[in-house]
Amino acid sequence: MQTLDVINSVTELSDTRVTGKTVVIIDVLRATSVMVTALSYGAKKVIPVLSKEEAFSYRNNHPEELVILAGERNADPIEGFDMGNSPVELIPGKIDSATLVMTTTNGTRTIRKADTASELYVASFLNAKATADVLGSTKELVLIASGTDGLYSVEDVLCAGYLISLLKQMNQNFHLSDAAIAALNLYESNMAHFPGITTEGRHYNILKKKGKNADLQFCFLKDKFPVVCQQKEGAIVKI
Question: From CA 225, how far away is CA 228, in angstroms rounded?
């Protein structure tokens, strides 16, 4: 039997729920949206790190690479970094073969915490269909909604629900956990007026107040990029 579970925030994440399983990390606003966009625009890889010190250290130790530092703390850019945590800051042709080193409040922390998974993918609305297409035969699948500051974020669970909807269209054999049933119901209840309830969410409105309207519009584009992004040897790459 194929099983499909949803973890609703990084604070729910534990080794027992992910070890040996295939996981998909979701951070719609905005880390995984940035990663997907960067790899679609030609970046060679994305390195998720936990701190700005770790990011600076990577660049110092890899002078042979074109390293771009990207990230945020509390939704604001980090001093000394090349860019914030924004997909609209990325320009096609400007990051060809670059290594994007990222640290964010939520998404990169979730990726690093899920390191006992057998396979790890990152996804957002931008590449949901392409990601679902490679997961249909997965035996044990866990979708991890990163959340915000350790709490539930409606946009991440909505994206998990969209992925489940896509998977069910391809394969009716997944046994859904209660959390997966709830995520699917959330998406189905909002798909007619997508992104629906997300616009009332805490993180959405934090970004809106900071003037990040272009990011908000971009991050909810469904299936803009036909790319699959998977972790290989500590780096997120396009496969």
Answer: 9
